[in-house]
Every structure is written in structure tokens, then in C-alpha cells.
Design brief:
The protein is elongated, with a radius of gyration of 23 Å. By secondary structure, the chain is of the alpha/beta class. The chain has 8 helices and 9 strands. The strands form 3 sheets. A 5-stranded parallel beta sheet has the order 2-1-6-5-7. Strands 3-4 form a two-stranded antiparallel sheet. The protein binds ligand JEK.
Length: about 260
């Protein structure tokens, strides 16, 4: 899979050479092109921004450098991803859809964002996704692109080892869809007076699976009542229902958003 990133701060992307992504690149599974938008700004000061039409605070990115850059970098099979606080939510499902593409181009805005005509124009050239990584305001698209690339890359076949399977992840399609995972433990069996739950060292694989499911349901109810509300009753077995009934599902202060 090929990733191209266009930004006025290309130095933000040095982490792509580290860790999991760096190894996947060295193994030929991923490749990255990081581009400085100012390379396509041809005036004497290499200007990329201007005042907003209609007035208001801040600056907006001018369309011409983006047009020059995207005409050079896009390919017919590419999808264009534009992070923005007003985008559709970037979820595990969206990450999975983007992981099926062979070429992704990311346009990182700064200031108050990119002149909307850029997205309007390229929508008739390639698939364009305006996406948001969450309900808070960043200073630009760069960090959002790092988040998206990390989430997408680990879904590309071969990037994760067999040991780190993707199907048990919170939000992964399957039985854990719409649940967060419960707590995890490793050695030593006792640490500062805290013991690992006995079931995990019992060797009873059935009981361990059931315990993990219970803890996932418990934690989802506690921390993500929004996810619990969206759970399909058909995905719950008798034991799941009994566990949920045993929990105090009284209204807690909403731990998400607001
Ligand atoms: C891309 C520039 C900064 C700052 C205008 C927006 C309501 C008006 C843009 N989840 C996410 N949060 N932030 C981003 C993101 C931020 C960006 C850019 C992505 C390009 N900025 C900026 C203020 C405003 N305000 C909030 C009031 C727009 C993002 C993602 N993905």
C-alpha cells in the first residue's frame, strides 16, 4: 500500500520510520511519500494561505498550491483523505475500508482549513473522504493523519505478526464489535499486593473466554454506555443478558463527548 502525504510541516512525519510502520516499510508492505505543499507554491513568498471570504478570524489555505500538488501526486486508483473537524467520524470500519485501497493521498490543512473548492473539484476525479478523528480541535491535519495511517496500516495483511491478531481488538468486526476489551495481565502473578485474577491462571479455556467477555461487557457498560445502547440484542447470549442485568445500569455522568 502506498501513502502520500502533503503538508506544510513534512517534519511531523518522521515517526513513520519508527516501530511497526518502519518495519512494514522495510519489508516492502508499505511505502510513504511525504511532500511539502510549498514546493507547489510558485509566488515569491511561496504563499499557501489568505484571508477568508465573508470575513472572520484566521486564514484559509488557497486552492492553487493544492491543485498543483494533487494533480502531481494523485493516481487514478487513489483515494483522497482530508482530515477536518467537520468530517465524518474516522472509525475502525472506515479504517478497514481505507485499508482495501492501493493508494491513499492525505491532504493536511492548517489555519482554518482548505478552500472548499479543492474537495469539490477532486470529488469528480477520485473518491474524497473528509474525516475527523474525534470531537476536539487540533491545530492542523498532521496528527490526525498519523492516527489514521497507524490504524489503517495494522489492518494491511502482513503488517502485524500472527501473534498480534486484529480480531480481538475493541471495535473489530465480530463478537467484540461495539465492545471495549477488559483488563489484561502478565507476570508476576502478584505485584505490590495485587493478584492476577485466578481464572486466568486456571487453565480452563472456556471459563477464561467467558470471564473476558464478562469483563468487556462490564467495562463497556461503565465507560461507554453509548456503545452498549447500540448493541444488537441478537449478538448477546443468555449469560451476556444475565450479566448486564446484574450491573447497576443507572445513569452515570456521560464519560464521552460533552
Ligand atoms: C484538519 C486545520 C485547525 C481549527 C474552525 C472548528 C468549531 C470552528 C480548523 N478531530 C479533529 N480536530 N481537529 C482536526 C483538524 C483541525 C484542522 C485541520 C483537522 C486543518 N485545522 C482548525 C479551527 C477550525 N473551528 C471547530 C469552530 C478549523 C481534526 C481532524 N481530523
Amino acid at each position: 500500500m502506498r501513502f502520500d502525504i502533503i503538508s506544510i510541516f513534512p517534519e511531523y512525519f518522521t515517526p513513520l520510520s519508527a516501530s511497526l510502520l518502519g518495519k512494514a516499510r522495510d519489508r516492502g508492505l508499505l511505502s510513504f511519500g511525504v511532500h511539502d505543499l510549498r514546493d507547489w507554491a510558485y509566488d515569491r513568498h511561496r504563499t499557501v494561505d489568505d484571508t477568508p471570504y465573508g470575513g472572520g478570524p484566521g486564514m484559509v489555505m488557497r486552492p492553487e498550491p493544492w491543485g498543483q500538488a494533487l494533480d502531481d501526486v494523485l493516481t487514478p486508483q487513489a483515494r483522497l483523505v482530508v482530515p477536518t473537524p467537520s468530517g465524518r467520524p474516522f472509525t475502525q470500519k472506515v479504517a478497514g475500508e481505507l485499508a482495501d485501497a492501493s493508494h491513499l493521498v492525505f491532504a493536511c490543512g492548517r489555519y482554518e482549513g482548505i478552500d472548499s473548492r479543492v474537495m469539490a473539484h477532486y470529488s469528480s476525479v477520485v473518491e474524497v473522504d473528509e474525516l475527523s478523528i474525534g470531537d476536539y480541535v487540533l491545530a492542523g491535519g498532521e496528527v490526525a493523519v498519523l492516527v489514521m495511517i497507524e490504524a489503517i496500516s495494522r489492518l494491511v495483511p502482513g503488517v502485524l505478526g500472527n501473534a498480534e491478531s486484529v480480531s480481538d481488538d475493541s471495535f473489530a468486526p465480530g463478537r467484540m464489535e461495539r465492545l471495549v476489551e477488559g483488563p489484561v495481565y502478565t507476570k508476576p502473578p502478584a505485584w505490590r499486593g495485587l493478584e492476577v485474577p485466578a481464572v486466568l491462571t486456571s487453565g480452563h479455556h472456556g471459563r477464561i473466554a467467558r470471564w473476558r467477555r464478562d469483563e468487556a461487557l462490564r467495562r463497556t457498560a461503565e465507560r461507554r454506555p453509548d456503545l452498549l445502547a447500540g448493541l444488537d440484542r441478537a449478538d448477546l447470549d443468555k449469560h451476556d443478558r444475565r450479566l448486564l442485568e446484574s450491573l447497576d445500569l443507572a445513569e452515570h455522568p456521560d464519560p464521552v463527548a460533552d
